[in-house]
Amino acid sequence: MKRIHVACLLLVVTCSCTTEPPLGFKQLAPSETGILFSNPLLETPELNILTYLYYYNGGGVIIADFNQDALPDIYFGGNQSEDALYINQGNMSFKEVSANAGISNSDGWTTGTAHVDINGDGLQDIYICKASGYRGL
After folding, report:
1. Residues 6+ apart with CB under 8 A from 102
2. CA 30, CA 60: separation in Å to the nearest integer?
3. How far is CA 34 from CA 67, 77, 96, 98, 101, in A?
4. CA–CA distance from 36 to each of 33, 55, 76, 80 (Å)?
5. Is 52 in contact with 108 (CB distance < 8 Å)?
6. Successive 10-residue mean pLDDT values, the chain, 137 residues
7. N or C: which end of the chain has fewer CB within 10 A?
């Protein structure tokens, strides 16, 4: 029984020793990607985690091909900031197009985002869930 454990340990150690670079994410600067979105939260005595349970839940992110160019675009939902739509220009470069797309979503608190072809036209539609009118949201 001990021989099997030692053999397994040697196999794991041998397979773990590699000279190939690790797979994973690489951080890119906003100057490289064009993405400048931020979702800062400014707590007040009236609005914080104790008065609004979902304060730190975030607004959501959608990655989908909204303009049908076979490149994934990004929609960011903001809580105390405006939502933003970024169109993929290729090569990990994005262009913010919220105003051109008619997105004016600065009221309320975005609590979630999703995409679906809701009307069956073959295009991805953006669904935004909002909280509004609660403690100044």
Report:
1. none
2. 19
3. 18, 17, 8, 14, 17
4. 9, 22, 11, 15
5. no
6. 45 54 85 94 90 87 95 94 94 95 82 93 90 70
7. N
